[in-house]
Design goal:
Strand content: 15-25%
Oligomer: single chain
Number of strands: 10
Strand order of the largest sheet: 1-4-5-8
Structural class: alpha+beta
């Protein structure tokens, strides 16, 4: 085993760190307060190649590996999880799904715009009655001559209003259950496609989360991804990779909270000395560092599995489960280390605490990850 990052990986990591500190940090508190989508920053991330990191260069992507993507997600998330989730959805859920399962025509039409940040993608699976139970799709797409007619509602869609390309999961053959589900490429502006109000969220408030409404939207047959009935499998395969991206986001949130706490503990004095000299604080930092390092190994291992063609269902689920728990725990402790200052916005840790919570919910709740893990280990 080799636990060192290559020179190329170190360069990518440093580039993401520099970008986060110079471009994401200024105004991050204000964007959170105003629920402002980081449009300018997303455009710059596209120019840096962060929006299509794992896509082949022939489609305008960066042609990098999953570990590079994880390193970028970690650094961005230390400072602005609202920006990093845009990168995660665009890379893991939209670009990867299209490149892996799309037709050549679909790739040529959509990928080049998505990888450069000219267009942003959204992944549309969740519904009012289909969150963790993704088999219960009520959105329908019935076949009519040369198109499908799409009807239904999708909830909690990241990039809901900012996206231009939407991958929508819908039921075509109700009698077949999950085997009758399909995946479709829907474009913003199609007649009958409406975007609901923006959700007022606890965390990642800069990310625009919306409900989407489809009223007799005509989707060309060439916009179906894969064979008829492939939609549910497409969603599950795509989400398996998406877990790695969110695990990296959780890792970044935890690491960001820890780094702020460590710095603060060396500056803040109580009882005549820096609080880092008090065992109560020093031990908190020790626990944070240890758990973050453990989470980091799980996240990097899942990326390594994906890059080496191994099955990453188990490693991705473990990484997502543990990293999200560490993110929440570390962020709460970071507020405690900061004391009264941790409760105000200027010190950033209260925002990281709010952002951390969603990592235990989206891309599959912690409870769903435990189902994936238990089924995997009990098969052996």
């Amino acid at each position: 085993m080799d636990f060192k990052l290559s020179e190329e990986h170190l360069m990518i990591q440093q580039a993401a760190k520099d970008f986060a500190e110079s471009e994401l940090l200024p105004g991050v508190i204000e964007r959170d307060e105003a629920q402002e989508f980081p449009a300018e920053q997303v455009k710059k991330m596209g120019e840096l190649g962060f929006m299509g990191m794992m896509v082949d260069e022939k489609y305008g992507g960066s042609g990098m590996d999953t570990l590079s993507y994880v390193l970028v997600m970690e650094e961005l998330s230390k400072i602005d999880a609202s920006a990093s989730v845009v990168v995660s959805v665009n890379n893991s859920l939209v670009c990867w799904g299209l490149e892996t399962y799309g037709t050549e025509a679909q790739k040529e039409k959509y990928l080049s715009r998505l990888t450069t940040g000219e267009a942003i993608g959204a992944f549309c699976l969740s519904e009012p009655e289909a969150g963790s139970d993704a088999t219960s799709q009520k959105t329908t797409a019935f076949e009519k001559e040369d198109h499908y007619v799409l009807n239904g509602t999708k909830n909690w869609i990241t990039n809901g209003n900012s996206a231009e390309v939407y991958l929508v999961i819908a039921q075509t053959h109700v009698e077949k259950g999950h085997k009758g589900i399909n995946a479709f490429i829907v474009e913003k502006g199609m007649e009958g496609f409406e975007i609901g109000p923006k959700e007022n969220k606890l965390g990642i408030r800069g990310s625009d989360t919306h409900s989407l409404i489809f009223n007799d939207v005509k989707v060309p047959k060439e916009n179906r991804i894969g064979e008829d009935g492939f939609g549910f499998k497409f969603a599950m395969k795509t989400l398996a990779g998406g877990r790695i991206g969110i695990a990296a986001q959780a890792l970044g949130i935890a690491a960001g909270a820890y780094e702020l706490s460590k710095k603060y503990s060396k500056e803040r004095k109580a009882f005549g000395t820096e609080i880092s000299n008090h065992q109560a604080i020093a031990f908190k930092l020790a626990d944070m560092h240890t758990k973050i390092e453990a989470a980091r190994h799980l996240v990097y291992k899942s990326a390594w599995d994906k890059d080496n063609g191994n099955n990453y269902d188990l490693s991705g689920a473990m990484a997502k489960l543990y990293a999200s728990e560490v993110a929440m725990e570390t962020a709460v402790e970071a507020v405690q280390v900061h004391g009264g200052n941790g409760f105000v916005k200027d010190y950033h840790v209260e925002r990281l605490m709010r952002d951390a919570k969603i990592t235990q919910i989206y891309e599959g709740t912690s409870e769903i990850q435990k189902i994936v893990i238990s089924r995997s280990i009990l098969r052996d």
